[in-house]
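Archive entry. Fields below.
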Amino acid sequence: MNTSAETLYLAGHISDALARDERTHMLDVHVRVSGGSVFLTGLTTCESRRAAAEAVARELAPPHMLIVNDLYVETYSPPGEAEPIPHPQQRTR
Amino acid sequence: MAEIRVAAVGDVHVGRDTRAFPDGRLDQLHDQADVLLLAGDLTQHGYAHEAGVLAGELLGLRLPVVAVLGNHDYHQGDESRIRAELERAKVIVLEGQSTVLHVSGMEIGIAGAKGFGGGFSGACGSDFGEDEMKAFMRHSRARADALYAALEGVRCDVKIALTHYAPTKHTLLGERLEIYPFLGSYYLAEAIDRTGCTAAFHGHAHAGTERGITPGGVPVRNVARPVIKHAYKVYTLSNGAALSDVAIASVRSA
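PREDICTED_STRUCTURE:
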């Protein structure tokens, strides 16, 4: 199997593991394998989950591959202005 | 003009080490909203103790909280206990059910169901083939039918549909096209369009878009937290009635 296919399947296996692993259960991490590195990108809610994702990827990736953890820990501020949604009778057609 | 203020958020993914509303994020909620909607994926791993963490955060709220569960909440097969934990905190959990909130002269009906995938008209699965495929689509149809029955059966001035899965692909814009069938179903939009809804709220699609619309013209809002980028978002729905105290009428099963 060629290298391109290997990297594709590795990315798929890591994505699958991130969804199934009890430490993560993360379905929306973007996994890319390129240039000898595994890149993890996306949002997460806490540092421990970010670290767990890296650990899962590390366990699956060949030892020579670098894990680049670009997962961002998001914090969410209180809301701004409310959005008005018109009643069906008030909608224009 | 009278109006109701609806706060909504989905996909808070509470875990043992993660709260949904840390550091006073709920402090202003009572001044900003009359009801809080939670659009599923309330837990990260699907454990009841995670729901217990969320229930603890919601326990002191003085406004009604209405929720549906999401796919994460079903992962361990413990959804009944998750529901029980939330109901202990007075959260109204809907699955093919409705509730009516009385807002001094105005009745707000909220019907909820998790929903499921299947895809959207022209690019969706079919109830055909292997048992597994038929089971997938029949589950989607059953959840949408439950939502329809709950919506159809509620009499109110303003009607809201609450799901986890998306009823329209408009709010999936930003997600990869290949996974649209796993993010929602047009069956949900059909239920919403046939029952005179004012608005629909959903979660699930973290990389999607906030604003969308059903084929029948009902506004849809994707309130998954990574989409709205706030602790919650507030929407106002008007109907000309006065707004004062809020009381909960009943939870009716479809």
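CURATOR_NOTE: Strands of chain A lie at 30-34, 37-44, 66-73, 83-85.
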